[in-house]
Design a protein that fits this description.
The protein is α/β, with parallel strands linked by helices. The protein has one domain: 3-Layer(aba) Sandwich (Rossmann fold), CATH 3.40.50.150. About 40% of the residues lie in helices and about 25% in strands. The protein contains 11 helices and 8 strands. Strands 3-2-1-4-5-7-6-8 form an 8-stranded mixed sheet, sandwiched between helices. It starts with a helix and ends with a strand.
């Protein structure tokens, strides 16, 4: 990803930080479901990386599940980190912990880039990333670069667990805007099978991939677009349209999106991809091929 695009992404989330949680229902729900994936995982990490921590909702789940672990929350936007630190300091659980267990490890905010982690090799027992990896540029190659960074900072036997978006995300908005002006109005997301391959190439073993679809509904298109803007998720890719959409293009978009209306509501579909893998020696078939398990929920 070029520097200009990365600056645009950072700026978008800087501006969204103060009111992010007001519109982040989906992001919070996915983080809860990702946390549920840890129910059957036997691991007691001492140090956890929350990569792309945003306002710290996922970090708070990790702190509750692993109360004796350090959690390092990394984000590209320092305004998000300010919100995360305030959340972790202000929760009832954290205040009680500080009083009863003053020497218990804490939450550490860190401004940095998932593609170039400012962290030393083998310094974490676990890495978590909830709905941040879709902002990595360069398609599958860029994702593999980020996975290699996760692998680098994990100790042998460390767990990497994440959630991201698949290619059917916002499929209605993509279809509605396809014939408008030749500009890309919806980000492109990577297929689950390519994500699994990128994990293997990055050195992870025993990857397990799952996918589910979550559909939110809105009274009108303007409400959906307001939510996307509020969480900093409006399109910031190369080739995006510069400036505001014209009136005729907006009317066409409204009419196109109306074709998806059901039961007086407009749907917005999200394909959510969950994955986890281990930074250790891979299990392979007799002919040397890596084993990847795919599940559809």
């Amino acid at each position: 990803m070029d520097k200009a695009t990365k600056r645009a992404i950072r700026h978008s989330f800087q501006r969204a930080a103060d009111r992010y949680d007001e519109a982040a229902f989906l992001q919070h729900e996915v983080a809860r479901r990702l946390d549920d994936h840890l129910d059957g995982v036997k691991i007691e990490p001492k140090r956890i990386l929350d990569a792309g921590c945003g306002t710290g909702f996922g970090s708070s789940l990790l702190r509750a599940r692993y109360p004796r672990a350090d959690v390092v929350g990394l984000d590209l936007a320092d305004a998000m980190l300010h919100q995360a630190a305030a959340r972790l300091r202000g929760s009832v659980w954290e205040k009680l912990r500080a009083r009863l267990m003053p020497n218990v490890p804490n939450f550490f905010p860190l401004c940095g880039d998932i593609e170039h982690l400012p962290l030393s090799r083998g310094s974490f027992d676990m890495a978590w990333s909830s709905l941040a990896l879709q902002w990595v540029g360069g398609g599958a190659d860029g994702l593999q670069t980020s996975f290699k960074e996760m692998h680098r900072v994990l100790k042998p036997g460390g767990l990497f667990i994440f959630a991201s978006f698949g290619p059917d995300t916002l499929k209605e908005l993509r279809a509605a805007s396809a014939d408008m002006d030749g500009h890309q109005h919806v980000n492109r997301f990577i297929d689950m099978h390519d994500v699994g391959d990128a994990l293997v190439h990055a050195g992870f073993s025993n990857p397990v991939m799952e996918m589910e679809q979550i559909t939110l509904t809105y009274a009108d298109l303007a409400a959906l677009l307001r939510d996307l803007k509020a969480i900093g998720a409006h399109t910031v890719l190369e080739g995006r349209r510069e400036g505001l959409m014209g009136k005729s293009a907006w009317r066409r978009l409204l009419l196109n999106y109306e074709t998806f209306r059901q039961n007086e509501r407009l749907p917005a579909s999200y394909e959510v991809v969950y994955g986890h893998a281990w930074a250790e020696r891979a299990q392979k078939t007799e002919d040397g091929r890596q084993i990847i398990e795919f599940r559809k929920r």
